[in-house]
Fold this protein.
Amino acid sequence: MGFFRSMDISASALTAERFRLDVIAENIANMNTTRTAEGGPYRRKTVSFEQIQKPFSEYLDTSFRGNGVRVSAVHEDPSPFKLVYDPNHPDANEEGYVEMPNVDIVTEMIDMISASRAYEANVTALNAYKNIAMRALEIGK
């Protein structure tokens, strides 16, 4: 029973990191969006994770191995927008400045590398669980 819970923990982390990669891709895709449905430029989004809480009764179970992780919230980055001088842009103000999204490509790439490394680490853990199961099945031969 504990073995499958270990796989569930890695699977929950894979799901969470995939969602984080989706949000990073959305940020990169909208890094030049100056007009959104809410009005104003696109605001960068970040993802928060939390531990999946299990009932106390499961802590008494000897096969209990952990809780896993899930996305708790998607937050908008409150940092100010960048001002770019472009008087010909349709969203330029009276002085000719355009408010651009607060998305920085370097920050997004660093976050993407971090998320992909975490994803790879969880795939490696999942493969290790699978190899352990296969070797356990070979013991009986």
